Amino acid sequence: MSIENSLKNKIIDAFKKLNVSLSEQDIVIENSRSPEHGDYATNVALKYASRLGKKPIELANFLKGNLDMSEIDHIEIAGPGFINFFIKNDAINSIVKKIILEGDKYGHGEDKHKKINVEFVSANPTGDLHLGHARCAAVGDSICRLYEFAGYDVTREFYVNNAGNQIRTLGLSLDIRLRQLHGEKIELPDDSYHANDIIDIAKQYDKEFGKDYKVGDAKCLAHLTEYGMKAELKKIEKDLELFRTKFDIYSFETDVRKDHHVEDVLKNKFSKYSYIQDGATFLRTTDFLDDKDRAVIKSDGSFTYLMPDIAYHLIKLSRGYDQLIDVLGADHHGYINRMKSALMMQGYSKDVLEVELVQVVRLIKDGEEVKMSKRTGTGVSLRELCEEVGVDATRYFFVSRAASSHLDFDLNLASEQSSNNPVYYAQYAHARISKVLETAKDIKIDLDAPLLKEKKEMDLLKLLIEFPKLIEISAPKRAPHMVATYIQSLAAAIHGFYSECRVIDRDHLDVTSSRLALMKASQIVMKNALSVLGVSAPDKM
After folding, report:
1. I need a surface site. Which of 185, 186, 188, 241 has the fewest CB within 10 A?
2. Domain extent for 451
């Protein structure tokens, strides 16, 4: 049990003497902002005094006199009734043993018995992943890792839009490139795909099937289009694997549309919410959360993108998930309420779907924005960015700020090997500990760490204690940037402790043994925190 939960239980027991029943959720325990105010504080006396007909200071003093003092050195009452707790050193130091024994499980939450589906990236398989896809990949995968660490059952899903205009354009682009390979004088239209990978795919297709390809034959064009889509998707999968991002499920729009499934969903599930106007079919989404009704069938009889998406979300929910999370670009803001409204038409809560909107990224180098790749003349791809600054820096920088915030990605800073680079600063803290532990591998570590008492030691210990709470708070908020902020604080505390407290002192092995235990515990927590963001924890740098 954490110190915070222990204090809550002590307060609950004290309130029972007043015939008041509280739960842990009713009590707020906060870290004190300065050492003179103790280690932890609560406003519980101010919150419940009026209910009991007491003054806050009177209730605070009652609680002070009726709390179990095990783990507590002393209590002080501040201001109108705040209760400040000064915790015994051995109670704080006990976290070291807990962390070392639990290892990579430290910070893991209990099983929440909740299944969550997170759909992210879902790029059209028509070319390289660009910076928007890259940030969505980093944010989406880190959200999944965070949920998993907190005890949720997570499924990662990639939705392949392989039935729209983009795929038709891909096929036509490949067709033209294939014809060019055979000497036909034909220009690629401006609205086609001009990237070099289209030429490469056309060349490979020509080697395998070129002799059988007939220009103008619908079946041949369909085969070429499918071949190109699969080649592009395979490349996307490879780049995502490089980025340490793997998916449990790849769902295809063509599967959602087959056997008239979308038509059946509209007819059987949405007939009472639909109407026809000017030849188009609309859903009454304004009956729920939307600002206007949305068309699902155009006047020409074709579906808008919304109806297949609704059918797809209903398929996901049919698999038994408690919640769906969509990680989308910020330009999808208007999408949220229309999809929530459609799901509410089927009896689902408005909260069954949550959408994480990811803002745009600007690459900055030497103080100027970088828009084009020097290699290809097109936008910088995920793979190129990883090749330039590394996967660790790319992932960390993408989640270091809230997804809803615009991000200027400083290529110079991401490549810098100094404390100015937050990734280097954190990883160096881990590597520094590894070197210390290797140097002192002949000294036995005292897991009880009884001699830790210096301020820098206490600062570090309190941060280690906070890690499980951080996970519990940040997971439901889908906020990996909170973990990144914690990592910087932890790195600063590690470096500060190392600078001011002599770790290896062979003339005082008892103190050394305690400090080595603290270093080992700090190493574990740093590695665990970095893993939530998909960032490595190197032993050497």
Report:
1. 185
2. 92-111+418-532
